[in-house]
Prior knowledge:
There is one protein chain. The chain is an alpha+beta fold. It has one domain (14-150): Nuclear Transport Factor 2, Chain: A. Helix content is 28%, strand content 25%. The chain has four helices and six strands, in the order ααββαββββα. It has helices spanning 14-24, 28-33, 55-67, 137-150, and strands at 35-44, 50-53, 74-78, 87-91, 110-116, 119-126. It has a six-stranded mixed beta sheet. A hairpin with a 5-residue loop joins strand 1 and strand 2 (50-53). The longest helix is centred in the last third of the chain and has 14 residues, at 137-150. It is globular. The chain starts with 13 loop residues before the first helix and ends in a 7-residue tail after the last helix.
Amino acid sequence: MKTLCNSQNIEHHPTLQKFVHAILTQDVELVKSCLAKNGNFEVQDKKLDTKERKIRGFINWFGPILRDTKIEHVKFDQCLHCKIGNTVLLINNGYFPRLLKDNSERSKTGLMIQIEDDLISVIKFCFVFLKTENKYQFEKMVDQLRNGRTEGFFNFD
């Protein structure tokens, strides 16, 4: 019987635990040591477009924003779209490290991780999760307006 879901649930893998520790302690060198030399890692360019890079490009992007951001929480979830079942890291509830380009994007981004030969070989941005709701940014704004109206902060009549 063939498996319909080619997933990697690696929450307890030592490399992933080391990677999470590196993020929580903001240790960029430890982050780098978890990455495969020939791996492919997604980043954002200056226009906030997603690009694929090798280690140096990923560290050049991730390192400075990691050092400049207070990391409060890292949560595990699973991908429900491109690599169903793969482990996804939600850092600061999915608001780090990727910035939203516009209001049509989903509000949270996870890092979908793949490990080969005990190193992280792929990091891709993930937007559809098993356990975490992820509304589009414009939906969140509409909800905030509705809540404000319900609580009497806005009157559109």
